[in-house]
Amino acid sequence: MEEKAKMVEETIEKYMKYVNPGFARLCKFANLATIEWEGRGAQVFDIFGRAYLDCIGGFGVFNVGRNHPRVVERAIEQLRRLPLSTRTLFNKQQADLAEMLAKITPGDLQYSFFCNSGAEAVEGALKLARLYTGRKKLVSCLNSFHGKTMGALSVSGREVYKKPFEPLLPETYQVPFDDLESMEKMVDEETAAVIVEPVQGEGGVNIPSSDYLPGVREICNRHGALLIIDEVQTGLGRTGKMFACEHWSVVPDIMTLAKGLGGGILPLGAFMSTATIWKVFEENPLLHSSTLGGNPLACAVGLETLKILQEENIPRQAQEKGDYFLEKLRAFQITFPELIKEVRGMGLLIGMEFFDPDVASLLAMEMAERMILVAYTLNNPRVIRFEPPLTISFEEMDRVMRALEESLLCVRKIVEEVNG
Asked: Which residues partner with 111 through β-bridges?
């Protein structure tokens, strides 16, 4: 035990000296001064063997759970044979994964480019849209989140992440989410693409009205702009369908994927489009490339992940479990009306919004004390996100609810004492 405690202390010290001092201080303040050591299903174990229930889920990474046996075995098999590509010969794993994606994605999305992250997928999607249309203007939504590389950041919607790095990409414009009138005014014949999340994850789990995505699709069609749907966080079963845009029967021109695509064990992202749009890459097939993206190891894992999602009907699991989770959380809204403003979600992408961001922070700390991991959303610190692995059991969800009730009672008491 002393040796493990020393290892934690040394690790935190190395974070302070060599990694990210601010993050180290934040973790210590949030009662998370330990090392994650092992994962299984919806649980993560620290170096001391203590089990945490993970309701953060890597912000949407563990759709098939942590260390799914099939994913791990497939990775080991490919690792022993050929993990990385020469980039000069054909890559069967990449071809098989692209074929599977073409079969399960909506509409006539056919071709895929594989990369290592959601931000990279967005970068590629923006480049493809500008290349195909010959236009420069990009339209996105306020409070959106598409990544933190320069292009992805340019179309994201929170100034605190953007301001320090300006000037960003030119000809990028933001309008309010779920506001068709503003979108109509902004999109014109100079617009290359509109990029939108079906549900704003980091924005606070904001769900649009039923006519919004179909309306954006129609506006893009009318002006000859491409519609990029960012499914990095919402895709692969998270919202109760394989892809969130299917809730509104909307088909994008370009789709971005990542997070859960790597099966919870490897980084893997992709952007996809139609045969017509992809033709612009034919003249120079190396116009957009990646040394490590689409490597055999990641693609083998991605293919196994897609098989599991379908064979275990994980999107339906997410819908059923999400309905159960939402019902329980909305009951807490009735019990704690002075703290909780709203509960909203689709599938197992759920947000609980508080009136005060300090209350959200307090709740996350109280939950950590009870071995439940939750976090607030990046663009809206008033919202605690519940985004567990889609394989979480009903018994585990009940454990979350018991801890949440205890935590809310403690937070209420603290607030009452502060307010006198």
From this structure: 273
Where are the alpha helices (H) located in 65-211, listed in sequence order? Answer: 69-81, 92-104, 118-133, 150-154, 159-162, 180-186
- Among 381, 369, 357, 353, smallest CA distance to 407 is for 369
The answer for residues whose C-beta is within 8 angstroms of residue 242's C-beta and 6 or more apart is 104, 235, 236, 309, 315
Rounded Cα gap, residues 336 and 395, in angstroms = 23
Considering only CA atoms, give the Rg of the chain: 22
Decide: residue 312, CB within 10 A, 0-12 exposed, 13-18 middle, 19+ buried.
middle
Structural domains for the chain: 34-64+313-418 (3.90.1150.10), 69-311 (3.40.640.10)
pLDDT in tens, 374-419: 998 988 999 999 999 999 999 999 999 999 999 999 999 999 988 8
CA dihedral of residues 7, 71, 349, 195 (deg, nearest 10):
110
For the chain, how far is it from start to end, CA to CA, in angstroms? 42
Residue 391 phi/psi, 5-degree rounding, is -90, 5
In sequence order, the β-bridge partners of residue 52 are 44
Dist. CA 24–CA 20, nearest whole Å: 6
- Rounded to 10 degrees, what is the CA torsion of 167, 172, 173, 178? -120
Residue 310: DSSP 8-state: H
Tokens at residue 262, please? 């790597």
- At 79-99, the pLDDT tens digits run 999 999 999 999 999 999 999
Beta pairing partners, 409:
none
Question: How much is the pTM?
Answer: 0.96
**Does pLDDT of 303 surpass 80?**
yes
In the predicted model, is pLDDT for residue 1 greater than 90? no
Segment 174-178 long-range contacts (CB within 8 Å, at least 24 positions apart): 174/139, 174/140, 174/141, 174/142, 174/144, 175/139, 175/140, 175/141, 175/142, 176/141, 176/142, 177/141, 177/142, 177/143, 177/144, 177/203, 177/206, 177/208, 178/206, 178/208, 178/209, 178/212
Query: If you ran DSSP here, which 8-state letter would residue 66 be given?
Result: B
Within 13 Å and on the Cβ side, how many CA atoms surround 278?
14
CA distance 191 to 259: 28
